[in-house]
Design brief:
Helix content: 40-55%
Number of helices: 13
Radius of gyration: 19 Å
CATH topology: TIM Barrel
Strand content: 5-15%
CATH class: Alpha Beta
CATH architecture: Alpha-Beta Barrel
Structural class: alpha/beta
Number of domains: 1
Order of helices and strands: HEHHEHHEEEHEHEHEHEHEHHH
Shape: globular
Strand order of the largest sheet: 8-7-6-3-2-1-10-9
């Protein structure tokens, strides 16, 4: 695939105020979420839930790309129609998660290294032949006493860069996801410090590996206080801190930044994305988009609970959250859903009538 095609695909993933929907949970993670809601932890239940997502009417109006899991990219509707055909027919670009998970890092207690580089060239070739046009690799960075270490940051950054180079070789746009985790008591200032160091290191390695900046998408965390931090900042402060950090570390040639939700509620993640676009949209070199998983899916899963009679309601809830995020990209998230505090932002679905479990 030519460099021009990679660039065009990367631009398409953040075009028209759309964003990405991550449905790439591993089977153990998906089963864990099902168990919490009393849904059977079976292959058929996972397939049925994924069918619910990919067949949601009009999803392509808000979602530019779907990030799939290895099991998912090979699946089909109950009638035998491949998921990939449904996705492409909906005008959505299919993508694939290719890392094999974050594992304990030897010699670095409390830190993780993401694995999956062995055999990656061959796997990327197969996924490209199947119809995938982009891929995703997630690294996780933990903030705590004495961590993250430079060794952990550099090892994960190098893995991200090597993965990205292999993706572009295979004709796939790499989604680069260095996630600084929300867990902990750290302040927003500490999160900002670590996030900037991580991003600078990642892009240093990307330069070294000769990865084309115009043909990738960055999927970072927002700059937030730790979940256990007593000082939780208002929406506009989060927006300002996040954009300032990104301006310090992300090259202007990158076409788009698609935030992960990272454990935020869907409503709060949307409100924070909206605030960034309201305040900075016309002044930034890259598009600010979304690549949410639970931030879009959770209400739908809670409604569905494995029951076929609730599929339509669950799809309405899924589309509603997707529409909310498209509006947030425009800086037009409804006034009732905004606010300068966590409490006000979390009220957003109160009047939607889409979360009925009847």
């Amino acid at each position: 695939m030519s460099a021009l095609t990679l660039i065009e695909t990367a631009k398409a993933l953040v075009a028209d105020d759309k964003g990405l929907l991550a449905m790439d949970e591993s089977n153990p993670t998906c089963n864990k979420r099902f168990a919490a809601l009393g849904i059977p932890q079976t292959h058929e239940a996972r397939r049925a839930y994924r069918e619910l997502i990919v067949t949601t009417p009009n999803l392509g109006e808000c979602i530019s790309g779907l990030i799939l899991y290895d099991e998912t990219i090979r699946e089909a509707k109950k009638d035998g129609t491949p998921f990939l055909k449904i996705i492409v027919d909906a005008g959505i670009i299919p993508g694939i998660k290719v890392d094999t998970g974050a594992k304990d890092m030897a010699g670095h207690p409390g830190e993780k290294i993401t694995e999956g580089l062995d055999g990656l060239r061959e796997r990327l070739k197969e996924y490209a032949q199947m119809g995938a046009r982009f891929a995703k690799w997630r690294a996780v960075i933990t903030i705590g006493p004495g961590i993250p270490s430079r060794g952990c940051i550099e090892a994960n950054a190098q893995a991200l860069a090597r993965y990205a180079a292999l993706c572009q070789e295979a004709g796939l746009v790499p989604i680069i996801e260095p996630e600084v985790l929300m867990e902990g008591e750290h302040t927003m200032a500490r999160c900002c410090e670590v996030t900037e160091e991580v991003l600078r290191t990642v892009f240093d390695e990307i330069y070294e590996q000769r990865v084309m900046l115009e043909g990738l998408i960055l999927k970072p965390n927002m700059v937030l206080p730790g979940l256990a931090c007593p000082q939780q900042e208002v929406v506009d402060v989060v927006a300002d801190a996040t954009v300032k950090c990104l301006l310090h570390a992300v090259p202007a040639a990158v076409p788009g930044i698609a935030f992960l939700s990272g454990g935020q509620s869907g409503e709060l993640a949307s409100a924070r994305l909206d605030a960034m676009n309201v305040r900075f949209r016309k002044r930034l070199p890259w598009a600010l988009a979304f690549s949410f998983a639970r931030g879009i899916q959770q209400p739908a899963m809670e409604i569905w609970r494995g029951q076929e009679t609730r599929v339509h309601l669950a799809q309405e809830a899924l589309l509603y959250r997707a529409k909310c995020n498209r509006m947030a990209r425009r800086g037009e998230y409804p006034a009732a859903m905004k606010g300068n505090s966590t409490a006000s932002a979390s009220r957003c679905d109160a009047s939607s009538n889409l979360v009925s479990t009847n």
